[in-house]
Design brief:
The complex is a heterodimer of chains A (103) and B (294). Chain A is mainly alpha-helical. Chain A contains 4 helices and 3 strands. With 294 residues, chain B is an alpha+beta fold. The chains are: A mainly alpha (103), B alpha+beta (294).
Chain lengths: 103, 294
C-alpha cells in the first residue's frame, strides 16, 4: 500500500448535472437515463434532451436506481416503485419522529 | 470444515444446496441493501452476504472454502499439485470480479483509460454544516499493477465541507477521480440527539410542564448556537410548533428552527401540587372526551 500526500483540490457543491455528466456519474449510457426519465424515476429540468439538467434529489435517485438495478436485478419499473415506496416510508418515519415515536 | 462464517452470513447450514444459497443471498440482498435499509448494521450485513455469495456460489471456491476456511484463496506450496488432481483448484489464479469490488469501493475500474468518476460518502455532524469544517477523506483505490494483480492504494484527500451543506448533497472535486474524472463526495448527517432536519429547517422536541403550557412564559431551549429563552404563548397545545426564524441551517435562504411542544407530567406530584390539582379539578369543568360522546 502506498500513501499519497493529501491534496487540496477545488470543491464545489453540485447544483445540477447535465445528461452527459449524469451518465458518467452513474456509469451508464444515455439510453438508460432516458428510460429512467420515461418511467418518472428522475425528472430533468428543461424539455429538450440536450438541455437536460438534474437537481441533487434526482441525481441521488438515479444513482440509487443504478445500484438497486445492479445489486438486486430490478428492472426500471421495479426500481421506480421501490424508490417511491422508500420515499413514502421515510416520510412516514419522519412523521413518527415528530410525534416522538422511534421506528 | 474449518470456518462457517460465510454460511452464517447467509443464514444457511453448511450443507445448503446451491439453490438454497442463491435464494438466501437474494433475500439478504433485498433486506439489507444500503439503499433500502438505512439501519446501522445493514451495510455490513449486505457486504458480508455479497462476500459470502461470491465464494459459495462458485462450486470450486466453495469446496476450497469448506476445506481451508477463511484463507481458502491463499497460495499454498502444494497448490500446483492440487491443481493437477481431478477436482483440485489452482489457487494462484485469482478471479477478480470487478462488480464485487465496485460494491466495496464504490467505484468502477478505469476500463481502457476512460474517464471515470469516483464516489465516496462522508458522514458529518450537524455542527459541521452550520459552521463549515475540514475533513480528511481516506480512499482506497484499486489499482492494477504491471503483473495484472490488484492492489489497494490509500489516498488521502483534504476536504473543506462548506457551511450550509445539506444531507444528500454532493461535493465535486474536479479531476480527482480516475483518469481525469471527478471525485464526488455524498454528504450524510450523523443522527443528532437533539435536532431533526427537514430541508434547511431544524426541529427540536421541547418538553414543557402542564402549567408552563397553560400559563405561557419563558422557557430555555437549545439552539445550535447556544441556549435561548423561548416565549411560550398562554394556552399552548401539545404538538404546537413555535418558529425561530433563521435559526436553522445556513444558506442563501436560511432555514428556521422549530420547537415542538410536548407536555410532560412530573413523575410524581408533591402533596402540595396534588392539592393544587384537586382545586383545579373542582373549579374547572373541561371534558376532553366530549368528541368521544362520553
Amino acid at each position: 500500500m502506498k500513501k499519497a500526500k493529501p491534496r487540496n483540490p477545488r470543491i464545489d457543491i453540485v447544483e445540477t448535472l447535465s445528461l452527459t455528466e449524469l451518465m458518467v456519474f452513474c456509469d451508464a449510457n444515455a439510453d438508460w437515463v432516458v428510460t429512467l426519465v420515461d418511467h418518472g424515476v428522475v425528472t430533468p429540468v428543461a424539455r429538450h434532451t440536450a438541455e437536460w439538467e438534474f437537481t441533487p434529489t434526482h441525481i441521488a435517485r438515479a444513482r440509487k436506481a443504478a445500484r438497486l438495478m445492479r445489486d438486486l436485478g430490478l428492472n426500471v419499473a421495479g426500481v421506480a416503485l421501490v424508490l417511491d415506496l422508500i420515499e413514502e416510508r421515510d416520510a412516514l418515519a419522519r412523521k413518527l419522529a415528530t410525534l416522538g415515536m422511534a421506528v | 470444515m474449518t470456518d462457517t462464517a460465510h454460511y452464517q452470513a447467509l443464514g444457511v447450514p453448511p450443507d445448503a444446496s446451491a439453490d438454497d444459497i442463491k435464494r438466501a443471498y437474494r433475500k439478504m440482498a433485498r433486506k439489507y441493501h444500503p439503499d433500502v435499509n438505512p439501519g446501522p448494521e445493514a451495510d455490513a450485513k449486505f457486504k458480508a452476504a455479497g462476500a459470502a455469495y461470491e465464494v459459495l456460489s462458485d462450486p470450486e471456491k466453495r469446496a476450497a472454502y469448506d476445506r481451508y476456511g477463511a484463507n481458502w484463496d491463499q497460495p499454498r506450496p502444494d497448490a500446483a499439485q492440487e491443481a493437477r488432481r481431478p477436482g483440485g483448484f489452482a489457487f494462484d489464479e485469482r478471479d477478480i470480479n470487478p462488480d464485487m469490488f465496485r460494491d466495496f469501493f464504490g467505484q468502477r475500474f478505469g476500463a481502457g483509460g476512460m474517464r471515470q468518476d469516483q464516489h465516496a460518502r462522508l458522514e458529518i455532524p450537524l455542527e459541521d454544516a452550520i459552521a463549515g469544517a475540514r475533513h480528511t477523506l481516506t480512499l482506497q483505490v484499486p489499482q492494477i499493477d504491471n503483473a495484472g494483480r490488484m492492489t489497494l492504494e490509500t489516498r488521502n484527500v483534504d476536504l473543506r465541507v462548506p457551511k450550509g451543506i445539506l444531507p444528500g448533497q454532493q461535493l465535486r472535486l474536479r479531476g480527482q477521480g480516475s483518469d481525469g474524472g471527478d471525485l464526488f463526495v455524498e454528504i450524510a448527517f450523523k443522527p443528532h440527539p437533539v435536532y431533526r432536519i427537514e430541508g434547511r429547517d431544524l426541529y427540536v422536541n421541547l418538553p414543557v410542564t402542564p402549567w408552563e403550557a397553560a400559563l405561557g412564559g419563558k422557557v430555555k431551549m437549545p439552539t445550535p448556537s447556544g441556549a435561548v429563552d423561548l416565549t411560550i404563548p398562554a394556552d399552548a397545545k401539545q404538538g404546537q410548533k413555535l418558529r425561530l426564524r433563521g435559526r436553522g441551517l445556513p444558506g442563501a435562504q436560511k432555514g428556521d428552527l422549530y420547537a415542538e411542544l410536548h407536555i410532560v407530567n412530573p413523575p410524581k406530584l408533591s402533596p402540595k401540587a396534588r392539592d393544587l390539582y384537586q382545586q383545579l379539578a373542582k373549579e374547572h369543568s373541561f371534558n376532553p372526551r366530549m368528541k368521544l360522546g362520553v
